[in-house]
Amino acid sequence: MAVSRKTVAAVNRLRRKGTKATAIAKTLDIPVRQASAVLKAEAKREEVLAYLKEDQRRINARAKNVTSAEPPLGPNEIARLCEITHQRVAQIRETAVANGAVLQNQWDRVDERRKEVVRMHKAGTTTNEIAEHFGIRRRVVNRDLKFMGYSRTQEEIMAERDSRLEQIPKFLKRGETVEWIANEFGVYAQAITNDIALIPELHAARKAKRDAIHERRKKVLALRKEGKTVAQVMKTLKASRAQVEGDITWSNKQKAARAAARAAKKAG
């Protein structure tokens, strides 16, 4: 139901006087449903505006290095709190900035970056190059593109995976963890694990390592059941204290998880 700005302004004038929807409808000669819709929309707009002002207060406090400053809300959180889309939040904020109700802030810089990310993406710039240009993670570039309604092509995804496959062996040889590598590439750890599975020699090496750990754990637990101390287990297996204690902790966690599962099943 389209409502003119003149009608909205008239409804607001009466609303500020405390006039109810039925009386507003009668005064302006419009349907009660229309008056109620305008009142609801204006109430939502004022709610968003209140959050925007709170967000601005937090940003200002952070800028002044106030130690007790709370983190800014941001458009997505405001949208969630107000149960509306982030696009609607952006519209209300744009109007509020134009009217001087709130100031421009770091949101604008994010919006500018997103627009530039899209422009570079359209121009054929790779995700890696865009990330390096802005000094951000590849994951952030992908989020920006998704936010702006763009998605990577299958060719781009495959090209990035091929690039990772070339560099992963070097990182693993250097002793880096899967989590570290994932963070370096701006992807989830599972993506790196999947990549490793595509490299036969790395997959075989990781499997051999897992098997060795599994065998050591079995021996550690067997020796502990015999009453051996941690020091005795270390000497027998020629393992470090961290390895032995780690195996014991792992075993205790597994037992606790199984016990919790049994309890949940019994309760269910």
Structure description:
There is one protein chain. The protein is an all-alpha fold and 268 residues long. It has four domains: 1-104, no CATH class; 105-150; 153-198; 208-268. It contains 14 helices and no strands. It has helices at 5-16, 21-28, 32-63, 74-82, 86-99, 106-122, 127-134, 138-147, 154-173, 178-185, 189-197, 200-225, 230-237, 241-267. Helix 2 crosses helix 3, helix 6 (106-122) packs across helix 8 and helix 12 (200-225) crosses helix 14. The two termini are 49 Å apart. 13% of the residues are buried. The mean pLDDT is 81.
Structure keywords:
single chain, 268 residues, mainly alpha, 4 domains, 78% helix, elongated
How are the SSEs ordered, and which strands pair?
Blueprint: H1 5-16, H2 21-28, H3 32-63, H4 74-82, H5 86-99, H6 106-122, H7 127-134, H8 138-147, H9 154-173, H10 178-185, H11 189-197, H12 200-225, H13 230-237, H14 241-267
Helix pairs in contact: 1-3, 2-3, 3-4, 3-5, 4-5, 6-8, 7-8, 10-11, 12-14
Coarse structural class = mainly alpha
User: What Rg is obtained from the alpha carbons, in whole angstroms?
Assistant: 29 Å
What is the element string, with H for helices and E for strands?
HHHHHHHHHHHHHH
Number of helices: 14
Strand content is under 5%
Number of domains: 4
Tertiary shape: elongated
